[in-house]
Every structure is written in C-alpha cells, then in structure tokens.
Amino acid sequence: TANATAMGLALATFARDGVPVGLLIAVGYRRAAVQVGEELTELLAALAANGVTDRIDLDGLSAAAVGELSSVVLGHPLDTETLGRLVDETEGNPLFVVELARSHRRDLTETGLSRPPLMPAAVRESVYSRLAHLPDDTTEALSAAAVLGAEFDLGPLAQVLGEDPTGLLARLAPAERVELIGTTETSWRQSFTHPLVWRVIHDGLTSDERIRLHLAAAEAVEAVSPPEAAGRHARLAYHYAQAVPLAGARPAIDHACRAADHAVARLAFEDASRFYGEAIELAERHGNLEPGEWCELALRQADALLGGGETSRARSTYAEAAERAAVAGDVDRLARGALGRAGYRGLPGVPDVEAIALLERSLATPAVDGLLQARVAARLAMELYYLGERDRRDHLSASAVDLVRPTGDGTVLAQVLISRHYALDEVANVAERTAVAVEAARVAEAAGDGDTAMLAHYLLVRDRLEVGDRPAAEAAAERHRELAVHARQPLHPWRVLLLDALFAHLDGDIDRAEALALQAFATGSAASIPNAGAALGGLLFLVRLEQGRLPEILEATLDGQARHPRYSTWAPMVAWCRLAS
Fold first, then answer.
1. How many C-beta neighbours within 10 Å does residue 391 have?
2. Residue 452 in contact with residue 418, Cβ under 8 Å?
3. For residue 560, what pLDDT band results from cuts at 50, 70 and 90?
4. Fewer Cβ within 10 Å of end Cβ, the chain: N or C?
5. By three-state DSSP, how is residue 190 classified?
6. Alpha-carbon gap, residue 10 to 527, rounded angstroms
C-alpha cells in the first residue's frame, strides 16, 4: 500500500510539473479499480488532463495469438480442436492461456492423452483473490448464480436465494463493480464476465452445496418460468439430473423426455437424440424405468437419430429395443423395433440376416396393432427378394395391402405399396410395378407423407425408363425434386443427385454425370446410406463405358460383385469390363 501511494504521488508530480526527458512510465490497472472517489480515479484524470499520457486498452488475445502463445508454452502447436477449446475457455486472457496450456502439457506428460486441461491453481487463485474482497452475501449469491449457468436469469436466482429483485441486485452489485459479472443485452439476465470465472466458482462448491443448489434451481425454474418457455424442460432436466440424490431420477427423466419431444417438434433431431439418451442413461444408472418404457425411449431416440441422418446408430438402437421388447413380450414395440432395424431397404444384393430374423420373430408373435403387423409382413416380403421365395414375397406383400386398404390409412397404405413394388422387382412385372408406384405416390401425397411420396416418384423414374417413356420419367424426377426441397433427411438429396447424374448420362454430358455421381457418393457415404457404393458403381460403369475406359473399373466391379453377390447387375458389368480389357 505504501509503495502504491508513493507511486501515485510521483505520478501526480509528473502530471503537474512534466515528465523528465527520456523517462517512460508504464502503469497497469484493472478497469474495475476505477471507481468514484478512489485515488486512482483522480490520478488518471490528472494524467489525462496533462496531455502527456497515452491510454492502451488491453483486450483478449486473438485466436492466432492464443495459438502462438500456447505453442511457446507447449513446445509444439495444438491441434485445431484443442486450440478452439482453449480460445473459448480463456477468451484470450494471457494468464489463463499460459496456465491452461501448462496444465495441458502436464496432462500429456503424465497420461499421454489429449484431454481438456484441469483448472490450474493459478487461475483459481486469480479468481479467489477477487472473491476474497466481496461481502459474504455477494459470494453466496454468486455460488447460486454459478449453478444456474454462465448466464443466469435474475428471476430464478432471486427465487433460489429467497430474495426480492431489488435486494438481489444490491447483493450482486459488488461483484459487478469488480467485473466478475456483467449485464447482457437483456435487463433480466446477467452473466459471468469470463467462462473460467464461472467454472472456478461452480467447481469450488462442495458436492452437498451443489446438489442442494441444483434442486433449488430446478424448483425456482418451475416456479417462475412459463410452462412452454423455450428451453425450460432442458434446464429442468439438467438441474434435476444434478440433484438426483435429493430428488430422485424421475423428474430428470421426465423433463429430458419432454425436452426431446419439443426438439423433435422443431426438427432438432440431434438435440432430441441427446435428450433421449440422457433419459435412458439416468434410467439405467438408477433403475427407474419399466422394460416397456425403456423400449419406448430407445425407439424414440432411434427415430431422432434417423431423422438426423445417423443411420447406423439408429439401426443398432432399433435392434436393441426390439430384442428387449421381445424378451418383455411387448409385441407392438418388437414390431416397431424390427421395422426400424430393417429401414426403408437393406444393402442391395445382400440379405439382411439380422433384420429378417427380427421381422420373422415379429411376424410369429403378431402385433396387437394390425397396421404394424401389415407393415412387418410387407417389409419382410421386400427383404426376402434376395433369397428368392417369389411366392411367399407375393403373398406377404399382397396380404399386407389387402389388410391396410379398408382402414383408409393413406400413410401405411403407401408404405406397404412401396414394399410390394420392391417385392415385385422383376422385368416381367413392370406394368404392375408401375401401377403400384403410381398409387403409392398419389396416396402418400394425399396423406401428406412426403418421404414415401418421394420414394414412389423415385421408383417411377426407373419404371418409366424401362419402357422407354422418358417424358414420364422426367416428370416423376421433377416431382421428386420438388418434394425433396423441404426434406431434412440426406437420403432425399442423395436421390436427387443420382437422378441428375442419370439424366446427364442420357443427355450425353458424361463429365457432368461423373461429377454428380461422385457428389452423390460423398453425400450418401456421409449419411451411412447402405447402397451409396452400389449406386456409384452402376453410374461409373455407364460413364466409363461411354469413355471407353471400362478396364479401369474391373477391380471395382469385381469387388462390388463380391460384396453384393445376389445383385443381378454386377455379373454383366464384370463380364463387360473383362471383354474390354
């Protein structure tokens, strides 16, 4: 204190009498230290009035500068993901960058793993030193605020603390003056000024304090947040999950499910699958769900995964739900799981043994819901294509259509018609297939089922081309494109690219056909579409045939034939490539 006072007097003298030639004095201070009535405030005003000072505001380092500084500390550059995390956590604060980088280096040395660094002692001490000068009721309020999040609403915080808004603002004012918290663009919301400040305060709570405060936060959100407020159920799910020892798992599970349902309604499938997953994890950890309820959550999560394009994860989740439903004797959920695992179709030329087994299992123990049972029969008929069994395919698919047609359910009728189309996929049946696809498209569009309508139009393209009716094929492709504009699943844009490539080839634009085929393959592979590779193989064969370059794809066609031994087009493609070699 004495040294600071002496420095202040010296600077005041220089401000009054002038600075000696050749002398540079640099002074650093926090903006929060500039308060009305403080000596520092008066000194800065005097220096500014003297006109011999320059003021430099120090903001956080740029992302590039954080990368350079962390590289110096570590002795090597950070990977992009870790650097991005470091930039986000430190917001360019040089002390925090150095200390977190050092912590990261120690983690690498001790474990050999790249992981988010632990909170360094120097960072905690920096925050604690500022907290030490605050009144007790302010630090108590900050602890409760930290449980609400890096940003927090004043209404729930006042509820947690049992404080009226005016009194709450007075309690928080000292923390705002030293820049631990600040206001946001919304008057009723505040935030911690730095993510690490929030983390230090939150992590400094004991387990008992954290659990109690999270339960109080959940009760406060329920009390002051409107029932349909955006994000309400997500916040409640989080707080109740942290308060399980006091509240039990049921509230957290219920709110996670409701958050997931809201996400599905917004087509936010990634959020929905995460929330359903959290509900399942809570249930498994605390044993709070009956088998049927667990299966229902798993099926909904699988639906969300499929909606988000995670086809492989969706199918494995459907399969697990089906197996558990079978053990529990839950025939309807077994049917839903079997249908989900089978998907809209399997890998061309390869019978899906697991899907067939689940569908057969469901067919042997009929679902209570007759429409579900019809869908199982139709989907099984479609899957049996590569196993032959022509008579059984015809019987299963025809009986499914006959069962659904009297119900007037257009969505299910369109779906079983599509399955019948696949079950009848032989050259001799082109007229019947075309009629089935036309009806499926009409019924699906009338029912508002865009996905099934798109598939029907997609199948019609091939049916029309088989009989040489290109105008009708182009009309079906155009209707498919119009419907795909609003589609979220990547399956539909993939099909649009395939059709564009096909028509480019028919027009003789071989370079464009090849580019579109490769673009379709990239889209299909990214979405785990099972037949993306087979579709590429067929299109590339047509392109290389026109280019006179068939020998280049001989190995690829041999590999395709090995992968899809029952897919009828590979054998002639291989033979043609060999003849050209």
1. 8
2. yes
3. confident
4. N
5. strand
6. 69
